[in-house]
Amino acid sequence: xxxxxxNALQIAVLLICASVALARALKYRSRGWTHLVFFYGSxxxxxxxxxxxxxxxxxxxxxxxxxxxxxxxxxxxxxxxLIRTAPPIKNPGRTVIPWIGPLFTAASxxxxxxxxxxxxxxxxxxxxxxxxxxxxxRLTRRRSYERQFFLSFMILVFCLIEYGLWFSSCFFDGDxxxxxYYWFDILFTASFVxxxxxxxxxxxx
Length: 205
Description:
The protein has 7 helices and no strands. It has helices at 2-28, 31-57, 65-85, 100-113, 119-139, 149-171, 180-202. Helix 2 packs antiparallel against helix 3, helix 5 (119-139) packs antiparallel against helix 6 (149-171) and helix 6 runs antiparallel to helix 7 (180-202). It is mostly helical and 205 residues long.
């Protein structure tokens, strides 16, 4: 019951955020806001498929490829939003900090592959590693990305919360608020709202 309520709330928040982003995209003719619209939209499509299956069959989908493809798309649009508003610097300098992201996602992928699907986990690791590397690259060069610092920070937080969801689902079970999975899911939903002010600060015009 808690999962259904939380999923419904998450979908509602995504649709509201998508509407706000769409209004700004139309008003400012901004590609940055357009990428955010598609980020919200693709994430919502994956959630809707998951929610409808759960509603009618009382269980999570045994074949989640529809949701997975939608979620892959949302990560791609989030990356496009970042590089659109904060293009890479020609001379990025030398720092190992950004590589922590890909190393973390690679290690996590090994853990998840030992428990289940291999191909999908590799794709998730690649996309999440790219997002974390790109956000950390900009966070470590704050002077060059002052306007985009909040957006880079939110992308990193988004990725970490996502991993919190995945890890907690492996170690905890139960449809009660004692399950940490639902607390991570609440944080995940809240993060969607913060992408709007983060994008507003990052985009020009």
